[in-house]
């Protein structure tokens, strides 16, 4: 179990670089009570803190949803290794400006352009061109819309279809912060 737990975090850490787990699905509870899911890019996976991180626009619907209810589920699938990882956790928004700024400054400019968009994500527009970000010499333009989300991981569900029978394991965080794992039927 210990080795498996480590290998799951190795996969997630690799996702914070470039791997099948770089792009995850993140599910929230909508303000209308319905499940909502969307793709996000995994930006950091910290096993010591049991924490995943991603970036988003503070004006987006998911931020509104997470403010109302911070529960989040994330899903990734490695189609080559036939491994699915599902994570449940609690999202929080980084308010420490130094931490946020360091992440902003270390991000590729191309990934920051969307934060400059003059229109709020999801708002109705007449033409897609209306959402285009203005060219800007100011590298801080859009920073006010940049949101760094940390997900404190509470539960991991691992499924490996490359074995017969398939392997499935679950890990839950205990009160002392350590994770307890067990095999479960797939
Ligand atoms: C490959 C890919 C990567 C994406 N990465 C992110 C991301 O890291 N953060 C983000 O907020 N949206 C990302 N998006 C856009 C979201 O999936 C979603 O469309 C947008 O954030 C609005 O979602 P919301 O209305 O649920 O807030 C990505 C979309 C794709 C297709």
UniProtKB/TrEMBL annotation:
GO MF = FMN binding; pyridoxamine phosphate oxidase activity
What residues does the Pyridoxamine 5'-phosphate oxidase Alr4036 family FMN-binding domain cover? 15-94
- Entry keyword Oxidoreductase: yes
Q: Does the keyword Oxidoreductase apply?
A: yes
Record-given protein name: Pyridoxamine 5'-phosphate oxidase
What are the record keywords, sorted? Flavoprotein, FMN, Oxidoreductase
Please name the InterPro entries in this protein's record.
Pyridox_Oxase (IPR000659), Pyridox_Oxase_Alr4036_FMN-bd (IPR024624), Split_barrel_FMN-bd (IPR012349)
Mind telling me which residue stretches traverse the membrane in this protein?
A: none
Q: Name one Pfam family in it.
A: Pyridox_oxase_2
Which GO BP terms apply?
pyridoxine biosynthetic process
What cofactor does this protein call for? FMN
């Amino acid at each position: 179990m210990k080795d498996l737990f480590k290998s799951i975090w190795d996969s997630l850490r690799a996702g914070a670089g470039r791997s099948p787990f770089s792009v995850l699905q993140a599910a929230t509870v909508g303000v209308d009570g319905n499940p909502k899911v969307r793709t996000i890019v995994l930006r950091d996976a910290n096993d010591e803190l049991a924490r995943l991180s991603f970036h988003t626009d503070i004006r987006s619907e998911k931020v509104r949803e997470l403010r109302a209810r911070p529960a989040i589920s994330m899903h990734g699938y490695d189609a080559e290794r036939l491994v699915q990882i599902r994570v449940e956790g609690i999202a929080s928004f980084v308010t420490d400006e130094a931490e946020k700024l360091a992440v902003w400054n270390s991000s590729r400019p191309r990934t920051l352009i969307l934060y400059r968009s003059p229109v709020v994500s999801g708002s109705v527009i007449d033409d897609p061109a209306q959402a285009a970000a203005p060219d800007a010499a100011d590298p801080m333009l859009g920073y006010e819309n940049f949101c760094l989300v940390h997900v404190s991981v509470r539960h991991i569900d691992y499924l490996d279809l490359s074995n017969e029978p398939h392997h499935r394991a679950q890990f839950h965080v205990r009160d002392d912060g350590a994770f307890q794992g067990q095999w479960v039927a797939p």
